[in-house]
Amino acid sequence: MSVELHEQRLLLAGVLDHASVPALRAQAARLLAQVTGSHLQIDCSGVTRANSAGLALVLAIMRDAGKAGKTFSVAHLPADMQQMAHVCELTAVLQPAP
Question: Which of 35, 52, 53, 55 has its CA 20 to 30 A from that of 81?
Fold first, then answer.
């Protein structure tokens, strides 16, 4: 599990679960402070598995980006996270990046 910043793209990777998310959340917050542009892409292409904690992590990053005055988009949301978003009626919020 990891979170890395590549220019304007925050790349999430590995298993996002209740054990991994607290550390990833703290790391993502630190990395968000380093984003210099006005837009952040949250890229989930490296996520291998996620539960509700993973979905909560993406939503928290989105909230933090908004508070920092940045626009944001989510790309490559895995099928399991898409299914959770659908059940929670969050599909519109987590639309893939164009």
Answer: 35
Tell me, what amino acid is at 96? Answer: P
pLDDT at 30: 96
Contact call for residues 10 and 3 (beta carbons, < 8 A): yes
Domains of the chain in sequence order: 2-87 (3.30.750.24)
What's the number of CA atoms in the CB half-sphere (13 Å) around residue 50? 28
**Core vs surface per residue 8-32: b (16+ CB within 10 A) or e:** ebbbbbbebeeebbeebbebbeebb
